[in-house]
Amino acid sequence: MKAGDLVRRPLVTVGPRDFARHAEGLMDDFGLTMLPVVDRGFFCGVVTKAGCRRGEDEAPKVERVMSQPALSVGPDFDAGTLFEAMTRYEVICVPVLDRGEVVGVVTRLDVLRALSHDDPHLRVDHAGHRS
């Protein structure tokens, strides 16, 4: 299984000149904790809910509170290796890039769910019971 197989839809992004308050609202609306920051179609970093709340002034722009460079992977990156990297670096969400363009976002939970479905020893139904 590859990272590109696990991307979340719809893809939600913000620009560096958007207000952090707008980014935080999008995260709330879509149940996310991180958004890729895209400038003229290309990835330039990520903004998190925590980052939005750290702005020095009351209405900071995303470019003032985003992280760059951020961990990212290509669509062909192995899901098992991705889970190990996310765990090692304590990252819960990673943008997936194809030639510099964001094609989606994958969370650690997305990867864990996918890997558990591939492993009969880890398969768990919705009620939390092993199959």
**Fourth-level CATH superfamily:** CBS-domain
Strand percentage: 15-25%
Tell me, what's the shape? globular
Q: Which structural category fits the helices and strands? A: alpha+beta
What is the chain-wise order of helices and strands?
A: HEEHHHEEH
The count of DSSP E runs of length 2 or more, i.e. the number of strands, is 4
In CATH, the architecture is Roll
* Alpha plus pi helix count: 5
Q: What is the fold-level CATH name, i.e. the topology?
A: CBS-domain
Which descriptors apply to this entry?
131 residues, alpha+beta, two-stranded antiparallel sheet, 5 helices, globular
How would you describe this protein?
With 131 residues, the protein is of the alpha+beta class. It has one domain (3-118): CBS-domain, CATH 3.10.580. Helix content is 31%, strand content 20%. The chain has five helices and four strands, in the order H-E-E-H-H-H-E-E-H. The protein has helices at 20-30, 49-52, 62-65, 79-88, 108-118, and strands at residues 34-39, 42-48, 93-98, 101-107. The strands form two sheets. A two-stranded antiparallel ribbon has the order 1-2. Strands 3-4 form a two-stranded antiparallel sheet. Strand 1 (34-39) and strand 2 (42-48) form a beta hairpin. The longest helix has 11 residues, at 20-30. The radius of gyration is 16 Å and the shape is globular. Residues 121-126 have low confidence and may be disordered.
